[in-house]
Amino acid sequence: GIEKFMQRIGGGFTRYFNEKYNRNGVLFQGKFKSIHVDSDEYLLHLSAYVNLNDRVHKIPPGNACSSWDEYLGKNQSDEICFKNIILDRFKDKEDYMKFAEDTVEGIISNREEDDRLSELLLE
Question: pTM for the whole thing?
Fold first, then answer.
């Protein structure tokens, strides 16, 4: 299955990288995990999270790797995403952009609320 495939890809890349840069050790932390995407709604929210993950985790602009620019048509040099699976569910790219930004704002807001509740519980 996918777990075995990812294990082989990760192991092969680790060997290549370690040989190329004369190093040893692991490159990836933890075991590969997968979750079944069982609805269009979940897929759309997952796409927003993946594309704007840098905002969720407060990674400075320019330091994140994302397909966000590809989805918005700003970067077409290395098109590797099947964007139409997502974009066809919106009237245009701007509609997707608003959905994704609203989704991520909700995620950030929920995390901040969870942090506040955790602090209150520890007091």
Answer: 0.69
